[in-house]
RNA sequence: GGUUCCGUAGCUCAGCUGGAUAGAGCAACAGCCUUCUAAGCUGUGGGUCAUUGGUUCGAAUCCAAUCGGAAUCACCA
């Protein structure tokens, strides 16, 4: 950022004078120089040949000559290859850049809430009829990480979850439990609450399937059978009773939901995610109805003959969307309209509302935002759907009915035991005490899992093979954690000061690269925040760790006897650690001091 | 059928506001622990960037068409 700013200004000034044109620094872009050429930054001169009226190489030479003449403190030399002008930055300039970023506390960060603006990130938002699975894990990690990243840009962040705690799905679990459980509870069975409720959800589906088959044998059509299956009738009846606040049903509903919440909380804790605001749908699902009425009065919506209320989105390339059932009850989008309005009403500083939801709902959110726009809410444009791809298994999509879902708790457990096994094989922890070991296994396991998920672009689908455990080597979370631990180890063996007395030292290639990469951190954080994409940060921090490891194997510190040089290297790796740690925390990944 | 998204090495992924000979990791092979942690470093092999056309000095990147995959088009959530 600092460097690009300087270069674009310098180049802008130069070409304006040379070619009698009027560009601004924003019109100029520089890029990093390719490995095989000398230099750090490159200007592509093709855009300027029509002004210079010279062939590209001569244009490059002309610009290069003028630059080193006018900016000889910063630019040491240049070389031009075809139309590419490669600039070699001076060591003092790079050292000054380094001193600048090193002197800034929390480089790359804005003070929390300094913008006095609020962003709400909604994620997780589970149904309460079954435990969390790998898809939820991706959702939670993305949402949490994005919230952390946005926080670094000076926003006040509200992490929100809206729990879908009512409806047919939970009634299915309730009915099956009533019929089949003999009063089984998490306490009596030792089963985690969400898994227990999930178990009865599965049992319900089995029962339903059996009943439908029986009815089919009796000669009913498939459609009739699916509607008339006794258990389904019972569930529908239960839902009616719930809405009528039947005490028995309500008590059971509360009991079973509480089992689930307790289970979810454990899983969230293991994932290291949390929320500032938890809403429950049974409280919020009626909000939207009055809005629909208003829209009807304003003629934004219309009532169809059968009594349902619709909005016409065909001018916007979408379809006609039903907003209220003919029997007057609300549906998904009705609720979402209501909660969005409530949220902007309750939080006056809210400038962005981000929904972390899978891409299967792209259409829904388009319709939702468009509808809000039609209702003339100016903030409709501030709603954003963070859409992410499904997690797929080698043999296709996860399907709960076929039992191919990867359960979140199971996955975490197996990651921990993999981490433990590998760590023991490497004999890393012989002098760790027992509790430290357990902590470390968890840290590594979650680091591997989180990084594995966050490094891929959210919008792309990703593949997970349960048969192969997630790697701990290479482009992984543990690699970065390991790098951090090494830095801590070096620092602990050296009595370091914080002086930055290193003025006239020669920089090794890897040192230059590491300075520049450190310097890029601010821009990367901004990009990740602006594009709502934690993967940008994840891939960047791997580059940093990789470069550190290369630097580390070529530039010894303890063996370096030039004290200025040694001090510089110490400060450089300190700064690197100062970037790795917060970046990893933005991804929700802990970094251990030793491993 | 309409709409949207995706297609890069054997596998998992970067790169996409157009720039030089397309990058990592895993897997395979060959080196490096008497020197700050070998979960590391160095090297080798591996590519028709789905296909075809267009835009231009220049295309994995932008546009169009085609092929392949996915999602969605519910008075489900």
Residue windows where pLDDT falls under 50 for at least 5 positions: none
Give Rg in angstroms: 30 Å
Distance between the termini: 34 Å
- The 3D shape can be described as globular
Alpha-beta content class: alpha/beta
Reported for the largest beta sheet, the result is: 5 strands, parallel
Summarize model confidence as the mean pLDDT: 93
Oligomer: single chain
Let me know the number of strands: 15
Helicity, as a percent range: 40-55%
Please state roughly what percent of the residues sit in beta strands, choosing from under 5%, 5-15%, 15-25%, 25-35%, 35-45% or over 45%: 5-15%
Q: In DSSP terms, counting alpha (H) and pi (I) runs of 4 or more, how many helices?
A: 21
Would you summarize the structure shown here?
It is built from 21 helices and 15 strands.
Structure description:
With 595 residues, the protein is α/β, with parallel strands linked by helices. The protein contains 21 helices and 15 strands. It has helices spanning 2-19, 46-52, 56-70, 91-103, 134-151, 168-180, 186-189, 193-217, 222-228, 230-243, 247-271, 281-284, 287-297, 332-346, 362-374, 408-425, 434-454, 477-492, 509-530, 534-554, 563-586; strands at residues 30-32, 41-44, 75-81, 84-89, 118-122, 156-163, 277-280, 302-303, 309-312, 320-324, 350-358, 383-388, 391-393, 396-397, 462-463. The strands form 4 sheets. The chain has a 5-stranded parallel beta sheet with strand order 7-6-5-11-12, with helices on both faces. Strands 1-2-4-3 form a 4-stranded antiparallel beta sheet. Strand 3 (75-81) and strand 4 (84-89) form a beta hairpin. Helix 4 crosses helix 19 (509-530), helix 8 (193-217) packs across helix 11 (247-271) and helix 18 (477-492) crosses helix 20. The radius of gyration is 30 Å and the shape is globular. The relative contact order is 0.10. The mean pLDDT is 93. It binds one RNA strand of 77 nucleotides through strand 10, helix 15, strand 15, helix 18 and helix 20.
């Amino acid at each position: 950022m600092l460097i690009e700013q300087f270069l674009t200004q310098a180049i802008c000034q130069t070409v304006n004078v040379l070619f009698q044109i009027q560009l601004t620094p924003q019109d100029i872009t520089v890029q990093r120089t390719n490995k095989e050429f000398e230099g750090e930054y490159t200007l592509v001169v093709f855009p300027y040949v029509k002004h210079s009226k010279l062939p590209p190489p001569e244009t490059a030479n002309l610009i290069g000559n003028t630059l080193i003449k006018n900016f000889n403190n910063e630019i040491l030399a240049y070389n031009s290859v075809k139309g590419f002008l490669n600039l070699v930055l001076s060591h003092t300039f790079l050292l000054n850049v380094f001193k600048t970023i090193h002197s800034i506390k929390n480089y790359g960060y804005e003070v929390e809430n300094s913008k006095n603006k609020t962003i709400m990130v909604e994620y997780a938002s589970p149904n309460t009829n079954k435990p969390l699975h790998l898809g939820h894990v991706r959702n939670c990690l993305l949402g949490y990480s994005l919230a952390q990243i946005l926080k670094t840009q000076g926003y006040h962040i509200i992490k929100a979850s809206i729990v879908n705690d009512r409806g047919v799905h939970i009634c299915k679990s309730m009915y099956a439990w009533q019929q089949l459980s003999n009063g089984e509870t998490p306490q009596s069975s030792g089963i985690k609450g969400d898994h227990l409720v999930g178990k009865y959800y599965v049992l319900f589906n089995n029962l339903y399937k059996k009943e439908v088959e029986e009815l089919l044998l009796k000669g009913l059509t498939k459609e009739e059978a699916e509607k008339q299956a006794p258990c389904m009738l019972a569930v529908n009846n239960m839902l009616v009773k719930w809405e009528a606040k039947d005490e028995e049903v309500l008590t059971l509903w509360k009991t079973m939901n509480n089992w689930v919440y307790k289970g979810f909380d454990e899983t969230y804790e293991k994932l290291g995610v949390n929320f500032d605001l938890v809403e429950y749908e049974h409280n919020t699902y009626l909000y939207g109805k009055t809005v629909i009425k208003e829209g009807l009065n304003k003629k934004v919506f219309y009532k169809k003959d059968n009594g349902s209320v619709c909005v016409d989105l065909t001018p916007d390339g979408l379809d006609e969307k039903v907003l209220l059932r003919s029997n007057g009850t609300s549906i998904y989008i009705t609720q979402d309209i209501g909660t969005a309005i409530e949220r902007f009403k309750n939080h006056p500083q809210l400038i962005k509302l981000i929904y972390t939801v899978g891409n299967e709902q792209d259409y829904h959110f388009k319709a939702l935002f468009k509808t809000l726009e039609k209702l003339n809410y100016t903030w409709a444009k501030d709603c954003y759907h963070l859409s992410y791809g499904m997690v797929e298994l080698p043999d296709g999509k996860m399907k709960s009915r076929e039992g191919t879902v990867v359960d979140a708790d199971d996955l975490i457990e197996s990651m921990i035991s993999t981490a433990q096994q590998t760590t023991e094989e490497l004999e890393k922890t012989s002098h760790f005490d027992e509790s430290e070991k357990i902590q470390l296994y968890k840290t590594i396991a979650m680091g591997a899992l989180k990084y594995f998920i966050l490094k891929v672009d959210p919008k792309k689908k990703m593949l997970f093979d349960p048969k192969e455990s997630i790697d701990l080597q290479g482009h992984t979370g543990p690699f970065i954690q390991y790098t951090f631990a090494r830095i801590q180890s070096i620092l602990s063996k050296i009595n370091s000061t914080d002086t930055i007395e290193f003025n006239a030292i020669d920089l090794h290639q890897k040192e230059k690269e590491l300075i520049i990469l450190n310097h890029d951190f601010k821009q990367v954080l901004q990009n990740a925040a602006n594009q709502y994409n934690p993967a940008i940060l994840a891939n960047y921090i791997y580059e940093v760790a990789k470069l550190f490891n290369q630097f580390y194997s070529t530039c010894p510190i303890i063996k370096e006897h030039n004290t200025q040089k040694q001090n510089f290297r110490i400060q450089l790796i300190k700064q690197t650690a100062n970037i790795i740690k917060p970046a990893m925390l933005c991804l929700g990944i802990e970094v251990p001091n030793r491993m």
